[in-house]
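User: Quick sanity check before I run a bigger batch. Here is a single chain. Can you write out its predicted 3D structure?
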Amino acid sequence: MRSPLMSAAVAVAAVIALSPLSPAMAAAPSDPGPGDITCNGGFLNVQFNPGVTFSKNTVRLTASGEMGICSSREHPKITGGTVRVEASLTAACPGPFGPGYARVTIDWNDGSRTAIDQSTFRGDAQSFSLEGGSIATGTFAGGTARANGRTTSNPIELGAGCVLGGVTGYAATIDQFSVGDI
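Assistant: Done. Predicted structure follows.
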């Protein structure tokens, strides 16, 4: 016989696993234009502090990862980079996480940097998106950003985290990340 806590964890995992894809998935950007860069196939490791529970709460999100393979006509030497996202947002299990304003910093493989202020982060247990913002400094200054990806963490573990003290992190793909005049 299952304990009530285990039954709740299994129920939450089933809800997360069977939920339809979220509207957090943004429309895929088109091919990069002359002042753009598009990256595919990256990843993010997302952390929450405090952990996300069933109660809506303000949490600090920090995420870091690799941009994947990047392509730009104007900046052909940029082929990848690392990304860091910082946000404060309202979140609850199994979602939504946000929307909330995020600061995004990208360190490109050619040594340049892009800093994006006021991007909007949205997510849930299946996906995330970043939209807009103003590129304040660095490569692609004056442009904007758009990204989307899918959660790759085990939905049963995420569901158990919701029940057992809070989800403190998850892993996600970066399906597409576009920066510049998009």
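The first helix runs from residue 4 to 18.

User: Great, the batch can go ahead then.
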